[in-house]
Amino acid sequence: MKIIFDLQYQEMLSLPLTEVAMNRLPGLTWVNICYDNLIHRGYEVSLSSNVDSFEDVKGAILISDMYTAHTDKLISRGAIAHLVFSMESPNISKNFYSTYSSKYNYNYSYLFPGIFSFFGNGKQNLPLFWPNAKVSEHYKAKPKDVFLGMIASNKQMFNRRFKFIPGIIEHTVKKVVWSNYYNRLNKMSYTDLYKNRLEAIIYFSKFKDFALFGRGWKKQNTLSLQNFNQIQKIEPLEIDDKLETLSRMKFSICFENFRFPGYITEKIFDCFFTGTIPIYLGAPDIENYVPTNCFVDARQFGSFSEMNDFIRSISPEKIKELLENANNFLNSSAYEKFTDRCFANQILNSIN
């Protein structure tokens, strides 16, 4: 029996995945868990990009990361549309979320918990939780030489027709073409948090103990000249090791890309792994998955000034309590669903 992993970014991948690939593409360690298990059980496993045009794929089990350039051809040649998943947010992957419940008719839809009630059900729904790999405890012991930091990129949105168009233009075009889609999201207050993140950067850039890390900040891109010049004052740095950088921070501004139920990515967990206190904004139902005594909830503040006053007045005892609570959560059964092992088992169990 043949298993085909129809993944994104296959130009960077081979099976089993290398350490370099897994470091560059967070959330993919589950692939090797599945690969080892399936090979041990006698399955033939390949990436969709490695399937030859003359190869017989009739009856092959297709596991798709949304849709790729290979999906349609493989299904038309007889591959079974078995399981489709996505770890992208609905504001980014509009084409996928608006069609997944009908296009190709996969046997299983493996998606963030809030997706099904908003976009519709597939044949069989599996709630998806971000698959975190096991992380060394040594990060927690690192000295904290950054009081408050943020790791984020100043991104440009790419477009197939043009070499690139700035993110703000792309966003405007999307709003026009997909107005009904975005209006529906906005009515539920399911919105982008990029603006909130930028506002936080601009506010805290006034303080010498704030640091910004990430790619793209040395170019203006979609930033106003005023914001660009303000950000340059804090000398944002590009980094190679996210966890190493996070481990230096006492607090980290941890805003998701999008506000949506159940959409919880690696951002908050990486803080827990490194002994950093996250200031979280994202999933409106975060308390259903992560105890609120593990992080600072950004929703409690009416302004960044209030947030600043709070984190500067928090006692050492309270900081210790937050860190202990986060560590207890990581060692609890409630966290288990957020592991790469659990993610892989969901897929493997669907194949049994």
From TrEMBL:
In Pfam terms, one family for this protein is: Glyco_transf_10
MF annotations from Gene Ontology: alpha-(1->3)-fucosyltransferase activity
Determine if Cell membrane is one of this entry's keywords: no
Which keywords, in A-to-Z order, does the entry hold? Glycosyltransferase, Transferase
For this protein, the record's Gene3D superfamilies field holds: Glycosyl transferase family 10, C-terminal domain
Name all Fucosyltransferase C-terminal domain ranges.
Answer: 222-316
- Which cellular component, as a GO term, is one annotated location? membrane
**Matching PANTHER family, A to Z?**
ALPHA- 1,3 -FUCOSYLTRANSFERASE, ALPHA-(1,3)-FUCOSYLTRANSFERASE 10
UniProt record similarity statement: Belongs to the glycosyltransferase 10 family.
- This one is known as Fucosyltransferase C-terminal domain-containing protein
From which organism does this entry originate?
A: Pedobacter roseus
